[in-house]
Each structure stands twice: as structure tokens, then as C-alpha cells.
Specification:
about 375 residues; 6-stranded mixed β-sheet; globular; alpha/beta; about 40% helix
Amino acid sequence: MNVPRTYVLVVNAGSSSLKLRVLGEDDNTVLAETTVERWSGGDETGPLEDFLRSAPPVHAVGHRVVHGGSAFTSATVIDDSVRARIESLTELAPLHQPRALVGIDAVRQLLPGVPQIACFDTTFHTTMSAATTTYAVPAAWRHKWNLRRYGFHGLSHAYASRRAAELAGKPDGRVVSCHLGSGASLAAVANGHSVDTTMGFTPLAGLVMATRSGDVDPGLLVWLQRAGLTLDDLEDGLEHHSGLAGLSGTSGDLRDVRKAAESGDERALLALQVYVHRLRQSIAAMTASLGGIDLLVFTGGVGEHDAALRADTTAGLAFLGIELDTGRNTETAADSRISRDASAVEVWVVEAREDVEIATQTLGLLNATDWRKR
């Protein structure tokens, strides 16, 4: 049953910003929006209050929550018990989970009585097979602590892969989706379902990111502890001082790294090379998981706006049948094809619209539960 004229507030509390949007009933029309850059993640409600004061009245709120663990495999109405379970997963996503909770608490205070829905980044990856999600560690560990690969950025990968398939007219295509921003991950998507991804038990795994290390030899971490680093030292170093920042000595913003590299900074140049190597390697791995590739998709702040990165990455993937069109890549706009007409694999740039995915899941849950009768 459709809910007429339902406006959804989407709250996307990221690792470095707070994005707020009100979407209309078609899930795509943005009626109001604002982004709080360099958001501290504290309990200040001022930006949210200011936004709600000028935005149209909303009938539901959808929150992006990074980690759902095994407890949450679909969008869920937030109550006190759900909030507590989300908080219990904080140690698995320390950069993101506390910020989502701040957003949830603030909106519940400012909009009492309005349904609040948690939409999880991990949900999209629940279709991955046991062979993909299982770690080769002692079974006793796996069972006691539910150790497995969860995967993240699912809201972005779900939208970007579906949108690219629609644009290309290949609804059953094999898609490798590249979400590249401050955080970064890839997803292998077949027939709209995730079959593999680069992140794992936490959002620290996989690609090199702005301040996160991505994959590191676990033996190295054991060695560092024996050498004197504490667990807090390791967590802080891997989450906040690694990745592009640790390699280059810059902020970790790829724009700053590129600028430094162009000025001759050898550390920054190495950072770019490491970033591209890991990205290219992982695209090939996702392709192997799919048994081939029909569409390669770039999304996220870096994926959408760094033409040089897209060119450098795809330059080493010609063996997969990827041929970039230099002109299209340089002049591209959102939701555009950047590969040559003759390319066996189509390459697309898709605008990141996690908000659309969140609004869709929020409305879907509310319609299914007929919340107006409550």
C-alpha cells in the first residue's frame, strides 16, 4: 500500500560530515538539504534544529547506520532496545557508530512521535555465501564471537550498482561497484545481489583509505604488540593515522595528496601508487568472484570527481576488456558512461545517492507495517 505525500528525512552521519536531506514521495526529489562539513560528531543539535526549522514537515526519518552485525539484516524501526543493540556494536565501527547514535538521539528528541528507521550498510551484503564470509580462524573463535565478514557501504553499493545497470540497460549484469571517498570499498554484484566485497568484520579492512590502513598482515599486528604497542595504540594508528595520511604525511584527502605529489613530494607519490595498486588489484579480485565483469562503476566523492584516479586505475585493467574514453572521463557529469563505445566492459560514473536507498527502505518498511494505523 502506498503512503501518499510522505516526506522522509534522511540522516547520514558519516566519518567526517553530517548530511541531511528531505526527500519527496518519489524517493528522488530533494526538497531540502544541507551538509555539515568537518562535523565533530558531538551532541550538538544546532545544525539539525536549524535545518528542521526551514525544511518541510517530515513524516518519517531514515538513519544510515554502518554496522548491523548479525542482529539486523533489514531496515528496522528504532526503539530503546534497537538503539541499545546498535550501541553494542560500537567497538566494531568506532568511527561511525557513535555518530549515528548522536543523530538518532537528536532526532528522537526533536521529532518525538515521528517513526525513526535504521538502515544498515551491512544489510546489502547478507546475500554473500558462507565461502565468502567465513574466516579461516579457529571454529571456537568464530562461534563465540560470531566472527565473519560483514561488508559495508552497502547502501551506496546497492544504489550505484542498480543505477548503473538501469543506465546501461543490463539488469542482470555483473557489476563491480567502487565506492571511493574518505572510506572506500568495492562490491561484486550479480543480478542485484552482493556476492563479495573488500571490507570485512569491521570497516577497517580492504582498500587503502584516507586515514584507515585497509588490509594489513595480521602477523604484523601481533609483532607490533610484542614490540610494545598497546591495543589502543594499534586502534588509533590503524583508524586515524594510516592510509593516505600515514603514507603521505598529508590530511589524507586525496586532493591534498595529489597536489603534494605534483609538487614532487615522494611520499605523496608513493601514497598514490599504493592506493591505485590496491584498488586495481581488488577490482580484478571482485571480477574473479563474479566470473567476469560487464559494468565497472565509480561513485563517492573520489570516485565521482577524480578523473586522473579513474584513468590510472583502469589503465592497468585492459586485460579485462576495459577501455576508457579520455574525453568522456575528463568531462564527465554524474550518471555518465566514460568508456569507449567499443569497450567490452562499460565504465560508469554514478552519483552517490545513499539517501535514495535509505528513503526507499524506510518507506518500504513503513508501508509493510501500515504505520498510520498505529
